[in-house]
Backbone:
């Protein structure tokens, strides 16, 4: 599965994550991933550019998106510890 992360014009805080046109959109304030690359595709009604993340599991914890990478468990644990 490929994920894409992007901001729409006028969005200053929210990042949008989806798997392409017609898929569910997740809104987060921050994200973290190990391997990603930029993509630039022009067209109507689609983001002009986005960050693409390949074949990684998505975890959303308290509005932050974590894509599976070395240390994801520790990062989630630290995020949750910071909330208490």
Residues:
């Amino acid at each position: 599965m490929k994920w894409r992360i992007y901001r729409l014009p006028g969005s200053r805080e929210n990042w949008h994550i989806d798997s392409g046109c017609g898929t569910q959109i997740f809104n987060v304030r921050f994200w973290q991933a190990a391997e990603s690359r930029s993509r630039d595709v022009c067209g109507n009604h689609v983001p002009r550019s986005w960050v693409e993340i390949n074949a990684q599991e998505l975890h959303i914890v308290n509005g932050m998106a974590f894509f599976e990478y070395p240390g994801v468990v520790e990062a989630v644990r630290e995020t949750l510890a910071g909330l208490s």
Summary: Residues 2-83 form one domain. The radius of gyration is 13 Å. The CA atoms of residues 23 and 41 lie 17 Å apart.
